[in-house]
Amino acid sequence: MDSVEEPIGTIPGFAEIEPEIPSPATPAIPTHRDDAVLQAFRTAARLTAQTLVLEIEGWAQQNPDHQTELDQELASAQHELSDGDASALADDDENAIQHYRKAWTHASSAGRYVMRAA
User: Fold this and answer.
1) pTM here?
2) pLDDT band at 64 (very low <50, low <70, confident <90, very high)
3) Around Cβ 13, how many Cβ atoms within 10 Å?
């Protein structure tokens, strides 16, 4: 019978299996992310930023006194949208979300110039 039984450590692939019992070094809460949720958040961030950029572009001619500042903010917003899209294509969702956040911020700043004319 000794020849049939093998110690557990000799089973191929068994050594690579990590224990599933939580310890202080391995928390019970999984550390991985749900990619579908992150991608949905990225999509929402892009749509929010893009919608505001398009809305502000529609009102861009309302304040000729600050046209230069408005154009600069809108150009920066478009640049951030492009950078976000590039990050999204590279599957870097967190970076893409940050670029979309910056695009929204630039579009919001441009909106201040539009609101001054109203």
Assistant:
1) 0.66
2) confident
3) 6
Whether the CB-CB separation of 77 and 53 falls below 8 Å is answered with: yes
Token readout for 117 is 């004319």
Q: In this structure, what DSSP letter does residue 23 have?
A: -
CA–CA separation, 111 and 74 (whole Å): 9
- In which domain, by residue range, is 113 found? 33-117
DSSP 63-105: -GGGHHHHHHHHHHHHHHHHHHHHHHHTT-HHHHHHHHHHHHH
Predicted local distance difference test score (pLDDT) of residue 27? 46
Residue 24 lies in a domain: no
Is 16 a domain residue? no
What span, in angstroms and rounded, lies between the C-alpha atoms of 18 and 34? 20
